[in-house]
Design a protein that fits this description.
The complex is a heterodimer of chains A (428) and B (257).
Chain A: H1 21-33, E1 79-84, E2 87-88, E3 101-105, H2 111-120, H3 134-139, E4 144-148, E5 158-165, E6 170-172, E7 175-180, E8 185-195, E9 200-210, E10 215-222, E11 228-238, E12 243-251, E13 255-264, E14 270-279, E15 284-293, E16 299-308, E17 313-322, E18 330-339, E19 345-354, E20 360-368, H4 372-379, H5 385-401, H6 407-427
Helix pairs in contact in A: 1-2, 4-5, 5-6
Chain B: E1 2-11, E2 14-24, E3 29-33, H1 40-48, E4 54-62, E5 65-66, H2 72-77, E6 80-83, E7 90-94, H3 95-109, H4 117-130, E8 141-142, H5 148-162, E9 166-170, H6 178-191, E10 197-202, H7 207-210, E11 215-220, E12 223-228, H8 231-239, H9 248-256
Parallel strand pairs in B: 3-10, 3-11, 6-9, 9-10
Antiparallel strand pairs in B: 1-2, 1-4, 4-5, 7-8, 11-12
Classes of the chains: A alpha/beta (428), B alpha/beta (257).
């Protein structure tokens, strides 16, 4: 038998950027723990459908440089932080010094804060199920620490533009930690874009800790190019009565993976996870979500929709784990899928693990095609077949897109989706 | 305007239409009556271009143009309109977006400029009032959560917006109470025009009290077995289909064979 492939040691060379010692120590420690890390194969349960898309070459082990470049000048309707190849670009960023809210680079942290942060990093994610994301902790060159004091409210959305510049082959490791104090509020938009055409990997980790009564809305737009493999993990810890709302809109690529893990640790916490994915050509996209109902009286509501055209491949795996003490949990999960061609593939798997006896837990998953009756109705009014296809496909996800709370982001997403569908049906 | 010659059509290998001949001139209103299973709805669907039905023989022309060679959307652009017996609910597409896309598709075909959102809104509001639909319906999903009567009014509203040359009304009276029937009939009567043909398919004669046809045809077993003026409808009302040698249930069965 062939030995299982392991992560190339090329990926474990020390990162170049200097960080405060507690974070540098964490990085070294993680790096040594990843020697001989098995790479996922189709026998690895949580990578079963996606391992064949993961292609890590030694050229991609090199940290993509961020020197001498200005970063994205994208205009955004809110505050902006530009992160280029995992390094924050202060001159391209635009955020005010607000009372009660601090945004700091890992590099600039004082010793105490760095120690505090090093003790918290990686705690919001289950390291077993996000094995490739562990590489982020071994390699991050910089990071953003966003802290909201109790009661602090950010008046406009904060956009974090993650730009991967791949003029040469390499990888980037953006890292974000959000500490939202009691009753604080923030809307965070993470937009992933790319430039350059060489093969690259972005391995990104975002963790959030929501204090009692905190309210965090997170929007994630995944729009990198065809040369970029994306492995992302988001871990969320929720204390009592906090509310977390997530909207993920993703366009396929050579490899797209997002693990979203939410732990409802305090009573009365509430989360809503929405996701939309579209893939075309030979693209791939894999969403793995986990909701841990640890405390009693928590609600979770999850709705994901995938649309796969051509020979593309979309995967959804939704896990809900209701712990023994999580009585009166209320969990709903729904996943609907639309196959636009016979060559496309969608794999969906709900996983429910319930150890409490007084809970409500509902799930549903469907895979279908465009409805012929609806299509006939539209074309019988003179609407062209292509346009009718676009209308019906948009309709399939409109319900979710319409819920994106920031109008400009919603319009961006809608514009991109429209363009995607028109292109898809043009070729059909 | 519409000429149907020896039209045969099948669904899933079963022949439903077995040689229909029908001529409709511009300005005329024709009613097709007949028992369940006689092929009335099949005829409507075939004319509109539903691919679930296969035309095996015969020809259909609209103003001399071979309709059977055209795709569904091309027929609509040439002026064919079918008011569905069961209008389809499409959540996620707003009625307004649907109607404007359809109107603009037809305008584009005629070489006219597209209507912008504001212009179209004004027009749509006017027409919705004509069929007694609250303009609030425009913002809802296509037919989503509409009552049976509201769906039928929405069909007539579409006909008024699209101004077809040939309007085919498939059981437009079914499921309507008397007030809704009146509203729908007013809408259809507003459609009557010198340059437009209307083909009404109905099981009951009551619609014909409101929309008086020029000709009435009886369809049974996939053929037109009798044609006449509007008095034929009254006779059918009084005597049923039996005197024409048609037994309702048998007809339904025979067409399914």
């Amino acid at each position: 038998m062939k030995p299982a492939p392991t992560l190339s040691t090329a990926f474990l060379h020390p990162a170049g950027h200097t960080l405060p010692e507690p974070l540098a120590a964490l990085r070294r420690q993680q790096s040594s723990s990843l020697v001989d890390l098995p790479l996922p194969t189709r026998k690895t349960e949580n990578w079963k459908y996606s391992s064949k898309y993961l292609k890590l070459t030694d050229e991609m082990a090199i940290s993509l440089p961020a020197d001498g470049k200005s970063g994205s000048s994208l205009a955004v309707p809110g505050y902006k932080v530009v992160v280029l190849n995992g390094i924050m670009m202060p001159e391209a960023s635009d955020y005010p010094d607000l009372d009660g809210i601090t945004i700091e680079r890992f590099e600039d942290l004082d010793g105490d804060t760095a120690t505090w942060l090093a003790e918290r990093l990686d705690h919001a994610l289950d390291s077993q199920s996000v094995q490739i994301s562990r590489l982020n902790t071994a390699r991050f060159e910089d990071g953003l620490l966003i802290r909201l004091k109790p009661g602090a409210v950010l008046d406009q959305p904060l956009f974090i533009i993650h730009e991967t510049n791949a003029d040469a082959s390499g990888s980037a490791y953006p890292r974000i930690y959000v500490d939202a104090g009691a009753n604080s509020q923030i809307t965070l938009v993470e937009e992933y874009i790319s430039s350059g055409t060489e093969s690259a990997m972005v391995n990104t980790v975002t963790e959030m800790n929501l204090g009692e009564g905190a309210n965090v809305t997170s929007i994630r737009l995944n729009m990198e190019g065809e040369n970029v493999q994306h492995i992302g993990s988001t871990g969320v810890l929720q204390q009592r009565s906090s509310r977390f709302e997530s909207h993920c809109v993703g366009f396929g690529g050579p490899l797209r993976r997002h693990d979203l893990q939410v732990r409802l640790e305090g009573e009365g916490a509430d989360c809503k996870l929405n996701g939309v994915v579209v893939t075309q050509g030979k693209q791939h996209y894999d969403n793995h979500t986990t909701i841990e109902h640890v405390a009693a009286h928590c609600n979770s509501e999850e709705t994901y929709r995938n649309i796969a055209a051509d020979q593309s491949h979309a995967v959804f795996n939704g896990r809900i784990h209701i712990h023994q003490d999580a009585q009166k949990s209320n969990a709903e999960m729904n996943n609907k899928n639309l196959l636009l061609s016979n060559g496309a593939e969608i794999d969906t798997k709900p996983e429910l693990e319930i150890y409490a006896d007084d809970v409500k837990c509902a799930h549903g998953a469907t895979i279908g095609q465009l409805d012929e009756t609806s299509l006939f109705y539209l074309v019988s009014r003179g609407i062209g077949r292509r346009e009718a296809n676009v209308l019906l496909t948009m309709a399939f996800i409109n319900e979710l897109v319409e819920q994106i709370p920031v109008e400009a982001v919603r319009e961006t997403a809608q514009g991109r989706l429209n363009h995607f569908f028109e292109q898809t049906f043009q070729e059909a | 305007m519409l000429s149907i010659k020896n039209l045969h059509a099948s669904v899933e290998g079963k022949e439903i239409l077995k040689g229909i001949n029908l001529e409709i001139k511009a300005g005329e209103v024709h009613a097709i009556m007949g028992p369940n299973g006689s092929g009335k709805s099949t005829l409507s669907q075939v004319l509109a271009g539903n691919e679930a039905f296969e035309v095996t023989e015969g020809e259909v022309t609209l103003n001399g143009e071979n309709l059977l060679e055209l795709e569904t959307e091309e027929r609509a652009r040439e002026g064919v309109f079918l008011a569905f017996q069961y209008p389809v609910e499409i959540p996620g597409v707003s009625n307004l977006q649907f109607l404007r896309t359809a109107v603009n598709a037809l305008r584009h075909h005629r070489g006219e400029s597209e209507m912008n959102a504001a212009e179209f809104m004004k027009l749509a509001k006017e027409v919705s009032r004509q069929v007694d639909l609250d303009p609030a319906f425009l913002k809802r999903g296509v037919n989503q959560g509409f009552s049976g009567g509201e769906k039928k009014r929405n069909e007539i509203m579409q006909a008024l917006l699209l101004q077809p040359k040939l309007a085919i009304l498939d059981e437009t009276d079914s499921g309507l109470d008397i007030d809704a029937l009146q509203v729908v009939s007013n809408g259809v009567n507003a459609l009557r025009a010198k340059d437009r043909a209307i083909l009404m398919v109905t099981h009951y004669q009551r619609l014909l009290n409101h929309i008086v046809p020029d000709y009435v045809h009886v369809l049974a077993g996939g053929r037109i077995v009798k044609s006449g003026g509007r008095e034929l409808a009254l006779e059918l009302e009084e005597r049923g289909y039996g005197w024409l040698g048609i037994k309702e249930e048998e007809t339904a069965n025979s067409s399914a064979n």
